[in-house]
Amino acid sequence: MAFIELKNIRKKYENNADYTVHDFNLDIEKGEFIVFVGPSGCGKSTTLRMIAGLEDITEGDLMIGGERMNDRPPKDRQVAMVFQSYALFPFLTVYDNIGFGLKIRKEDKQARDEKIRRASGILGLDNYLDKKPGDLSGGQKQRVALGRAIVNQAPVFLMDEPLSNLDAKLRGQMREEIVHLHREVGATTIYVTHDQIEAMTMGDRIVVLKDGHIMQVGTPEEIYNNPANAFVASFIGTPPMNFVQGDIHDGCLHMKDGQRLCDVTDDVAARNSQVTVGIRPETVEFAKHADQGVAATVERAELLGADYNLYVNIDGSRVIIRRGVADGPFQEGDQLNLTFPLEALYLFDQQTGARL
Predict the structure, then answer these.
(1) What is the pLDDT of residues 52-75, one digit of tens each?
(2) Of 213, 235, 257, which one is at a domain's C-terminal end?
(3) Where does the record place a coiled coil (predicted)?
């Protein structure tokens, strides 16, 4: 039995004609770090809030530790939540903010002090315990919010986009700290984000959501290398996967301008003559000879340090490719001949987006 079970969970708001979350089914093992990722409005935060007890569950069952939680108030669900906003009391010190929940529950002063100082030690806040939130940076405030979750010793941590208010460099540092904290404390963590980099670097497993539906569940490697559909393929990856229109006939895959790309297997050839071809930017190669490959024109070249992102035009379709600096320099107007290795191509149904 999984530690957390979401069984056919649905959410429908009173004035909405349709469900916000549809048939959400997921088993989460004890100690896992699960990331819900998807665009705004996909239902990820709503699902998290249903787990926390901040939103009612319209249909389905939520089980934590084998017990049904649908009708339990938040305080009885043994979960600790960290929000996008730090929600700190400005008139309290860091010490008192971290220990606020313990004080409300009238926990013994010595035990409370031990828990607060253990949390501050884990989070590097020992030198800030006497300061007020107004004296702290954004990263320090988020650490205080995490400390408040730690001292409650809840077996489940729920985090709703906790890093979205931080700058890019600090987000990178805090990603490492949260993963370290997860391992140190040993809690089961469910983390919501719209940032696929956070999802790929933090999660043991990723749940990709769209319009309230689960698109795919898997490890970061599974999601990246074997996307179930075009949406997952487009959402996970930086730069994102390229999509161009293809045509299958005579057992071969062709570009829409007729240029032949590669042979295809018999089962793919029999499915559909029109397909969407997915190409990861880093898998595109340069042809060895000028008369080979697909002709492309560089429209923009972005130097990112060790790599270039090249935005190229192929028969009216814009494609991004990634190449190392050793292959450059590149500039607007450069003419390239590109090849696409068969094993690196993804084929999707044009109508449904399903992977072929």
Answers:
(1) 999 999 999 999 999 999 999 988
(2) 235
(3) none
Token pair in block for residue 117: 């100082």
**How do beta strands 33-37 and 188-193 pair?**
parallel
| pLDDT band with cut points at 50, 70 and 90 for residue 101 | confident
Of 210, 235, 260, which residue sits at a domain end? 235
Give the DSSP letter string of 238-301: SSPPEEEEEEEETTEEEETTS-EEEE--HHHHHH-SEEEEEE-GGG-EE-SSTTSSEEEEEEEE
The pLDDT of residue 147: 86
Chain centroid to CA 287: 34
Cβ atoms of residues 183 and 31 within 8 Å? no
State both tokens at 223. 């999601």
> Residue 286 falls within a domain, yes or no?
yes
The model's pLDDT over 294-313, given as tens digits with 9 standing for 90+, comes to 889 999 999 998 999 999 99
Task: Please indicate, yes or no, whether residues 108 and 219 belong to a single structural domain of this protein.
Answer: yes
Element (H, E) at 202: helix 196-202
Average pLDDT over residues 124-151: 87
- Same-domain check for residues 225 and 264: no
Q: Classify residue 355: in a domain, yes or no.
A: no
| b (16+ CB within 10 A) / e for 317-344 | bebbbbbeeeeeebeeeeebbbbbeeee
Q: Cα angle at 163 between 100 and 174, to 5 degrees?
A: 85
Q: Which domain holds residue 307?
A: 242-349
